[in-house]
Amino acid sequence: MTAPLLQFQNVSLSYPALDRPILHHIDYTVDPGDFVIILGANGSGKSSLLKIIDGRYQPTQGHLKLNAKNINTFSAKVRANTIHTLTQHAKDSLFLNLTLFENYQLMQKNVKTPFKPAELSKYLSGFNQNLSTKLAILAGQLSGGEQQALALALAVLEPPAVLLLDEHTSALDPKTGQYLMALTAQVIQERNITAILTTHNVEHALRYGSRILALKEGGIYDKIEEEEKKTLTAVALLERCY
Amino acid sequence: MISLLIATLTQALTLVPLALGINLSYTILRATDMTIDGSFVLGAAVFARLVTLGVPPLIAFLIALLSGAIAGAFTALLQRGGKVDPLLAGILMAFILYSINMIVMGRPNINLLSTPTLFSGAFLKSNLLGWSSIALTILLFVMGFYGLLRSRLGLQLRALGDNAELLSRRGAPAGLLRVLGFALNNLLAAASGAITAQVIGYADIYMGVGMTLIGIGAIVLGQHILLPFLKSHYLRTHSELVAAFSGIVLYFFILNSLLRININPIYLKLCLGVLLALFLGMAVQKRRTA
Description:
A: 242 residues, alpha/beta, 6-stranded mixed β-sheet, 34% helix, 23% strand, B: 290 residues, two-stranded antiparallel ribbon, 78% helix, globular
């Protein structure tokens, strides 16, 4: 049996100004290779949970462990290289006023043999054909779909230990969103990346991922493991998770 | 016409490092750093005081650069990791620098006409040699600045100006980069101040008034005119340098032209101010559209 990659131990997050905690008493483990889908209504704590993992929020109670060590013992740099986050906002993943190539240069610090422009074009064309000819274009001038494809391509340039996907397709049109979600799942599977995805899309939750975690009002409402997940219908999932 | 061009070029030349510094703060770090009004004077004041005390001009010049860098570093520290507006921190630092400059000089101005400076030997031989040695010094600054912008550090400074939060999350030392960026920007302003003091023959407590505005205006002017022709982002560093240089030249060309048509000096700053306001307005509109 493999050791857990992430361990939430009685994790809570609260602000004095709020009448209820944002997260309370979260106990959950994520194993290497897991693709966890987090479902829950707005304000259920999905994004806050991811922000605790990538260090934007600190739990007010409990511990989060990465590879059995308290995550706070890792330096910001190590944590940044280990955990990559994509959100629906391109500015959370890309420098919009820098070119695609400059974004790559800033991201490629761990790659020992950096890509030449032609090699980067070829790599990016695997994510979105349009990107291959736009290396000198500012990231902010790309379409939303191209930006998210670029963000994904750069996030898995050197596969992270954990990839956090915070509704990263929700701002895209349905067709582009479907394409990007399928691409994301394919990349995760091919590179064997441990990933956690938050979504409101029940269809995505059923089609992708290995496990489901449902949150409600900051607490764990339900846990669905892989075998059980395969037997669920959309209606059953909705009833269980919302 | 030739005398107009010579006057323009000689006045613009000494302010090229300042324009590069403002390019760093305004275009790359995306901050309006008013410290420059004070660090320009600080460079001149430190240089003038030290050479009049008998310190060799090169050592005095290097210390003047260092003093500008320290002032810039303090401005960055006053921002407390991006929580305080750079504009406010810069105004505060310029306010403090007024006293510091007065303390450094010990009086409101120091005459350098009879004191050996970095360029006085060359000017004694001929004006051409004097201006050539200044041009060579400026060229060294331009080359150093170009090297910086083409380096990974330059790219990180650009990233800091674009999205400091993302840069921090990527594990880069954003705080240190901010200090470094503002230090460099003010080092360049101090260099301009120290060179200007040697050219005009004195350091004066009020010689920095409006320098930030002149620099930003010149950069905006240069970028507005040149960038449509240099849109390739592969050439961005080159175009920024050309825009900074041509902007400062254009500013002094307009200034000298206004003087040549015998405009009443009372209206000079009004005319230049209106012109800069127009270009700044266009730049703001451009940024909003972007």
